[in-house]
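Quick question, first post here. What does this chain look like in 3D?
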Amino acid sequence: MEQLTMYIPTISLSLIITSYLVIELRNLRYSAYAYMLQAVLMCSLFVAFANQNPGLYYWAITAFITKVVVIPYLLLRYIRRTTNREFPPLIGYLGSILLISVIVIIFYRLTHQYGEFIAPTPAASEEPFRTNLAVSLTIFVMGLYCILVRRDAIKTVHGLLILENGVHLSLVSLSPLLKETAIIGIVTDVVIAVYLLLYVIFGVYQKFGSTDTFQLKGLRW
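> Answer (accepted):
Ran it through. Tokens below.
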């Protein structure tokens, strides 16, 4: 456990940095690559925790296939078929950086300080679980921010993927020893949902020539 404590928090905190990149990079292809990097970090966390729960090795394998290979492939494929440049968001680049930085600082500090209140379990008060829980809730909120603020449909898919990683990190942080943890993680993978969303987005792009989500209101006519 002492050895895990040394590097698991560093990997977890790196998830916040990669979330920044996924959200703020205006080049959608680079954003997809940033998500791929985050997915690799997630898989490495599953492997690290698998020392205590070997069932997590199966989750790490399936997560690598879906998060590192399949989903980035789908993202890059549909980016090539639509557009590589994000449709301008509701908040400008500098304003978005400042706002999301405030969100990260507030949520991370609060969840790290009051982890026992949020998750009243023995693990939540110990490292690396305390840091992991704070990171998981922080990137969950970052994903939600991306979904709510971004107008580009593909970027909202990126937000959904960040949100999912936050959920999975909280799951492995709160119950790393349960055999059911790996099963729940595997069955809650959103790869099918991502494919369906990208398929619909491509149809919208063909009709309107844009990935602007505000164009969706035109589907009523």
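The chain has one domain: 2-220.
The first helix runs from residue 2 to 24.
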